[in-house]
Amino acid sequence: MLQIDKEGLQTTVQDLGRNGFQKYGVIASGVMDPYAHRLANIMVGNEETKATIEITLMGPQITFLADCLFALTGANLSPAIDGVQLKMWRPILARKGSKLTFGKPVCGCRTYMAIAGGIDVPEVMGSQSTYLRASIGGFNGRALQKGDVIPIADAPQHVQGFIDRLAKDVDETTFAQAEWTLNSEAIPTYEKEATVRVTEGRQAYLFDENSQKDFLEQSYQITSDSDRMGYRLKGTELTLKEPKELLSEAVSFGSIQVPPDGQPIILMADRQTTGGYPKIGTVVTVDLPKVSQLKPGEKIRFEKISLEEAQRALIEQRKLIDELSKSISLKFKEES
Amino acid sequence: MDINYSPLGDEAIVLEVGQEITKESTSLVRSITKRIEQASIESVVEVIPAFTTVTVFYKVTVDHQFEDMKNLLKNILLEKNVSETVEQRTIEIPVCYGGEHGPDLEFVASHNQLSVEEVIAIHSSSTYEVNMIGFAPGFPFIGGMSEKIAAPRRSTPRLRIPERSVGIAGMQTGVYPIETPGGWQLIGRTPMDLFLPNEDIPSLLQAGDFIVFKPITETEYAEWEEKTHAAD
Questions:
Q1: Where does the UniProt annotation place the signal sequence (chain A) (predicted)?
Q2: What class does CATH assign to B4-78?
Q3: Between B29 and B81, where is the model more confident?
Q4: Which of A3, A101, B55, B161 has the most beta carbons within 10 angstroms of its beta carbon?
Q5: What is the ipTM of this complex?
């Protein structure tokens, strides 16, 4: 069990999202950075679908009420246990009673905390993700608050030996970190200016020639109105050849829609299910984490690629994650 | 009718049956949705019908890229005549008009030079069709409101609209299933839940349903409220 001593800016339970209910207007929710989420789970021996804790910019303070194998991926928000700095992207065993804190954001915006066994909260409509506006899912349908005690399921059998091995190292100290991590190519670096790839939007042809060019040549700033629902950008105005009223249709994670003020919005995890603004592009799925890790004030550029390339990248990424997952399970066996 | 297939990002395909809402397009959207859902294709993650489009989200694998999905869906839709009709239900929604539940009813009346009673009579005498569900969980986009009771959105949206409020915006009427900010003119409130998070189908309404609004008194509203929301 985990006890929340301080809640942080926005700390929620999220998994890979609520699928199959968008036709009833129920938003997908889920993690903003699926790559970091999946890897966090893999590093504690969980299935990738298990819920993690999504931590935003200012992290919470957490007391471990039992021994706990966990991993932190995504943004580096200066995590520490009892004042000693922790390493990211690796399994860590915390002893009962130790305190996890976060400090200055070093890079990125969102950290994922996976705990071996996963967070033991009920599924609502097939998902553990928190849907704040409807007050469902996650922990009591809301962000974590001071005083909450979060139940954790038992660690999976195949990491038990590894936990025991790490536990031998923690007689004196309050935690033990694995010495290994992922290959450096598998660990993303989060810059203050990101170039993300996009495929052509369904209504890109409605924009005038200059706007189609500006969209790909200018950089856009993330405004402070950006959240889990959408990233509102500021930059060169994008305009249509002529005004047009569109019928609402489904949108996706990464859809870039442009309201009449000409400032693009990237739709994120908590997007509404449908939208009626013209979409100039869509961020490719494998580059979504780059967007999610940008903070207000930072910059983004778009680079167009073909649909075939985007889908190939997705297939390649799946392969990479499978390979990482295999080599990490092997580590668990070797180090038991 | 021709169906146009185009990508939405790299994990979805949009089937578009036209760019205007017609009887044919709505029934085609419904039958396409039903057909794809019944085919239970393993790689399909989600099907989202809208006014004139059906969007299919799928899991991309070596064997399931855009062209593969397009062909797969085309074949499914070829099998039988797609324009089969889907049965439509009629659902009665009780509404307590005016008072604290419908603070803008008088505005809607004066805006249209009608009495409050006339607005209620017009609003509750039509049969409405649910074109799609979106915007919020269980929120119906409804067609068929009389233009006699149309009213512009509020110039300043309310920060909180109580759940189950019934409103008018332009030529549209609708019911807010959950508490949301919004600019609709509120004419009443229903004690009936539209968002049912604990049911298999979490929305009272579905695209294709017919709706009729039935006026109820404040006492009836209070009794219903007592019965269904006592635990809230």
A1: none
A2: alpha beta
A3: B29
A4: B55
A5: 0.95
Domain ranges of chain A: 2-189, 193-305
Q: Which CATH architecture has domain A193-305?
A: Beta Barrel (2.40)
d(CA A74, CA A39): 9
Residue from B125, B132, B139, B122 nearest B92 by CA:
B125
**From B8, B135, B177, residue closest to A202, measured CB to CB:** B8
Q: What is the pLDDT of residue A271?
A: 95
Q: Class assignment of domain B90-229?
A: mainly beta
CB within 8 Å: B52 and A24: no
Q: Which of B5, B6, B10, B56 to mutate to test the interface with A (most CBs of A within 10 A)?
A: B10
Q: Which of A136, A252, A315 shows the shortest C-beta gap to B62?
A: A315
**A195 strand-pairing partners:** A301
Q: Which of A163, A194, A146, A145 is nearest to A301 (CA)?
A: A194
Contact A307 B138 (CB under 8 A): no
Both structure tokens of B10: 């790299």
d(CA A16, CA A172): 37
**Using 50, 70 and 90 to split pLDDT, how confident is the model at B153?**
confident
In the three-class reduction of DSSP (H, G, I as helix; E, B as strand; rest coil), residue B2 is classed as coil
Name the minimum distance, in Å, from the CA of B56 to any CA of chain A: 9
Q: Report the chain A residue with the minimal C-alpha distance to residue B160.
A: A133
Query: Hunting for tokens 């009962």 — which residue is that?
Result: A96
Which residue of chain B comes nearest to A304, CA vs CA? B9
> Where exactly does CATH 2.40.100.10 map onto chain B?
90-229
Q: Quick check: B14 and A202 CB within 8 A?
A: yes
Closest CA to A227 of A54, A78, A107, A23: A54
Residue ranges in chain A whose pLDDT is less than 70: 171-173
